[in-house]
Amino acid sequence: MSAGRADLFDGERVLWEGSPTKFPVFDRADVVLVPFSVFWCGFAIFWTVTAISWGGGALFALFGVLFVVVGLYFVFGRLIARWLRLRGTTYTVTDRRVIVTSTAFGRRQEKSAYLKTLPPPVLTRGTGTTGTIKFGASNWMDDIRSGGGMFALGALTGRGTASLPPTLVHVNDSQQVRDIIAAAQVSKQV
């Protein structure tokens, strides 16, 4: 990997770079989101069919179609968007920051957080040496907002993913990466 993937500050030193080893379509948040998505889409289809069959007018039908489109995004689109986003994701750990750079649909997004402001890294082991690294304890709502690819839920709740620490999903040698981050955090506190 080249250090040019993330925008670095002058004097910033790269400690580790990597990318997801897998591109999971489903994650922990989907235990809640999949049933909700199916319910939403089913209700939206019911609404639209009922509005059209009862002669509710174009406005009710258009309203229903809008909710069907949102429902289809909840059921399929967010999973595809997550998969595509992870395929174009790289992670960089420097002596100052953790940086997640994603490229999807021609858009490049970079999210970073300073090591000294992050809680300690928490490793959730996957298969073999892979795992996911989060910072601090997270609750199921954080998982829905960050891992769920649910930009709409962030907009509905008024809290997007910008306030959440970065997450390193399915990294290889995850225990070693966690240790690199923890050691860099300790050196920043001294």
From TrEMBL:
Alphabetized UniProt keyword annotations: Membrane, Transmembrane, Transmembrane helix
TM region(s), chain numbering: 31-52, 58-81
Full protein name: PH domain-containing protein
Organism: Kibdelosporangium lantanae
